[in-house]
Design brief:
The structure holds 2 protein chains of 2 kinds. Chain A is α/β, with parallel strands linked by helices. Chain A is about 45% helix and about 15% strand. Chain B has 2 domains: about 15-235, Spore Coat Polysaccharide Biosynthesis Protein SpsA, Chain A (Alpha-Beta Complex), CATH 3.90.550; about 240-330. Chain B contains 11 helices and 7 strands. The chains are: A alpha/beta, B alpha/beta.
Amino acid sequence: MSGYREYSLVMLVEDAESDFVPYLQDLHDYLTELGLDHELVLSLNGSGLFARQCLQHWPAESGPLQVVELTSKVPSGISLQTLLTDCRGKTLIICGPYRQIADEGLKVLLDTVAQGKADLALPWRQQRVDAAINQWQSLAFNWLVRQMTGVPYHDLSSTLRVVRREVLEETPLYGDLYRYLPLLARRRGFRVQEIPANHAQERGRVGYYGLREYMSRLVDLLAMHFILSFARKPLRYFGLRGILLLLLGLSCMTTSLVMRLAGSEALGNSPMLMIGLVMIVTGSSLWGIGLLGEILTFALGRKRKDYIVEKFLRNREEDLKTI
Amino acid sequence: MESTTVMNDVGIYLSIVVPLFNEEESVTLLLDRLQEVCGGFDFNWEVILVDDGSTDTTWAVVEERKQTMRELRAIKLRSNCGQTGAMVAGFDHSRGQIIVTLDGDLQNDPADIPLLLGKLDEGFDIVSGWRKDRQDHWSRVLPSRIANSLISLTTGVYLHDYGCSLKAYRADCIRSLDCYGEMHRFFPALASMTGAHVTELPVRHHSRQFGTSKYGFNRIFKVFSDIFAINLIIRFSAAPLKGFVLCGLPFALLAAALGSLALAAWGLDWTEGKAMFFSIGCALSLLGLLLMISLGILGELSVALSDLSHTRLISVTRRKTSVVSAQHEEAK
């Protein structure tokens, strides 16, 4: 891997954060102190003008700083995929614009990945310093994620992650799915470790978020549930629900017809026939959507490999003349 | 055994692909049997073992065996990705013109491999094993028989035992399929899409000696769901709108019936409310039909954006080329 550095420190700046420059400087100094070969990459996601003004204070002696600027704000998953081509680090340290956990915690994450114990390490913030209301919301969200996906992580809300480059290359991210990177990476077979670390600082809104934020998270969670379990078999998800509704609708219609033949009230006066018909239409639509999902998967996704090779044992001579 | 197929003498003719999941006890015996059977071949062969994320010492056993067995190549997958994924990994890393697949739990007998190859030499592209004298409990055999009948009836590729892992393929037929999910049961049916000639051959079957079966009752339901999906892919992947219109036909009939009743109710002045009732029923049925057609159009769009049609063209062209070459040889 010529031309590659050991680490890329990638700072994601999305909002008008004024003091990201000192934090970036601190991290740079810390990594230098640890003797780690690294480059600095700053991702300005729609925060270009303000951030550029702040960067005027970047000390020249700190070395080169690569700035990837997206002129309009895009979801974090997309911004990360975009800047991957600009990073040369074999391992990426991805962080937000302020110190979320203490440096000792970061060191443990770095060591875990460097020692090959994990391909992705994320912190589980302990002794949290943010408002109690935010902590409760975070707890509830992570509990819901665990229940819906069955994956045992406790803190997906932290931006800080140490991740091997291969993980990001093999795990396509889109939309706001950066939050769920540990789940997606785990599904692709990468080793993910959540490591307890002392919480240092938290920013953002205190109290309840807007309805839009909650809805957005719920929709993302639903998408994750589907992607993790049924991405390659959409008919199993939609088909089961569709067939159940279809059968229920058919039995409603049959019952009302039998009752009519047995001399009961006229079909037009029985609501069961109409309810049955609505169920049949809804069930068939769900089933049809599952079938469409199968066609989409076959037509557009069949070339994507389901497996990742970890080791390949073969003879030293690649082109054998005889075995 | 002698193969009548012309082959490049420096290349590999036969690749044997074996997916493994927690088979530490059987893998050594399996490799011994393969060496015993394939050692007598007059062509080059290789075994591709695919460790599908085993949690026991399967990989360690394989690594140790590699020291002494040159025909062995082995792949360790990062995680358990299922039998289809493991088989596709094996196909992708194989070099043979013929690929034979078999289970790693010694239920298939490697001694049947020469018989499968002999059948391929008769001109077939895929030979599927048929465990005629199956050594499994009836609770596994019965659902399997029903599934086999359903797959055969619906796909038009009549085989007694789709679930038998022991199969032989011409590599071109299977590599071009790009399978995913849990399609391994349907390889012969899918390959028939590209015009492959499929047949079956009775093979031996032994009951499982080590470990536990990786199949459960929940699999049966999944298989039935997959049968629908595979049929749609086989029959309508090139023209999905036709498939969806077919699914929408009952709604069209229902709409026509309910519409006629509504007209009759209006015209003949039936009891109050009946005309409205039938009209709403007719509208709902039309909605169902409209949804099916819309889904079909979306399906057409996705196929148009994909390279499905190219895949089919390649397989047809390749067959034509081989015919032309044969005629050319004859002329010479």
